[in-house]
């Protein structure tokens, strides 16, 4: 079941990136992140009440709660970097750098959780992922200075925080129902996202939102919520060093949709990189 959950997480995550890209053509990335988080927050708590896990919140240990809050903070930071990157970079260039969090997550899982079973397969798979990411992370030929350089920094920041998210969540969600853990983390992200909107003075932009983009942001939030619920179920019940690579293969869907929707084509070099990332993930999933 946890393997199936990891696959579904990847599917919904792939849809998230495309829907989010459609929703931030005119909308500021911080405002878009805050709006999407509202949808994810409502969706995640709705799932908590549907599965009847709300009463369990009083039984969560202080340690688990602390790590869930830290995981939420890391997620919030990752999101802010990620959606800022999407707003100024090609999705085919942004996503591979962001997915480099996979390499960090696997290595941290091996060290922190002693997930050393089939270690050789995991290390080989991680190496293939790393090389594939480097091949795909091409420089974007943009008209602006910001598009050429800044988006890479934001994408790297997104990857680092995403890697921390997985490790912190694994600790925090131990002994906590996965839907409830996801909902608590989402609350932290919600506070961070709206805090950034008001601190940066972007609240007035809420009056000028494009209705079409709002629809895309709404469905992007739904896709994110579904991805999170599947992902943290898989994290709680499965092996982190296997779950994370499978989840990150949402890049296959993202690349496919980006070609259809945005006509963003892969170069031969990037195509080889995508192939290596796929091979690395399959190596860990099948042999790890």
UniProtKB/TrEMBL annotation:
It holds the Pfam family EamA. The keyword Membrane applies. Residues 2-136, 151-284 form the EamA domain. GO terms for cellular component: membrane. The keyword Membrane applies. Keywords: Membrane, Transmembrane, Transmembrane helix. Gene3D superfamilies: 1.10.3730.20. SUPFAM superfamilies: Multidrug resistance efflux transporter EmrE (SSF103481). The chain crosses the membrane at residues 36-58, 65-86, 106-139, 151-171, 183-202, 214-234, 240-262, 269-287. InterPro entries: EamA_dom, EmrE-like. It comes from the Bacteria. Belongs to the EamA transporter family. This is EamA family transporter. It comes from Candidatus Avoscillospira avicola.
């Amino acid at each position: 079941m946890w393997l199936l959950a990891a696959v579904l997480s990847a599917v919904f995550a792939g849809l998230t990136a495309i829907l989010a890209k459609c929703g931030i053509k005119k909308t500021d990335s911080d405002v878009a992140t805050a709006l999407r988080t509202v949808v994810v927050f409502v969706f995640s708590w709705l799932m908590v009440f549907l599965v009847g896990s709300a009463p369990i919140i009083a039984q969560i240990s202080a340690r688990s709660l602390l790590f869930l809050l830290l995981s939420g903070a890391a997620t919030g930071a990752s999101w802010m970097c990620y959606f800022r990157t999407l707003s100024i970079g090609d999705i085919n260039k942004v996503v591979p750098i962001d997915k480099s969090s996979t390499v960090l997550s696997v290595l941290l899982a091996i060290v922190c959780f002693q997930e050393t079973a089939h270690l050789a397969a995991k290390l080989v798979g991680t190496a293939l992922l790393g090389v594939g990411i480097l091949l795909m992370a091409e420089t974007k030929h943009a008209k602006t200075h910001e598009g050429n350089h800044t988006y890479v920094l934001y994408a790297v920041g997104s990857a680092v925080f995403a890697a921390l998210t997985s490790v912190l969540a694994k600790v925090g969600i131990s002994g906590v129902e996965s839907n409830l853990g996801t909902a608590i983390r989402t609350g932290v992200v919600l506070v961070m996202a709206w805090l950034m909107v008001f601190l940066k003075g972007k609240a007035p932009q809420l009056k000028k939102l494009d209705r079409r983009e709002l629809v895309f942001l709404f469905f992007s939030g739904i896709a994110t919520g579904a991805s999170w619920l599947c992902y943290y179920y898989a994290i709680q019940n499965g092996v982190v060093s296997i779950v994370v690579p499978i989840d990150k293969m949402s890049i296959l869907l993202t690349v496919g949709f980006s070609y259809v929707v945005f006509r963003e084509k892969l170069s031969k070099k990037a195509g080889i990189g995508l192939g290596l990332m796929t091979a690395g993930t399959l190596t860990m999933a099948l042999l790890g």
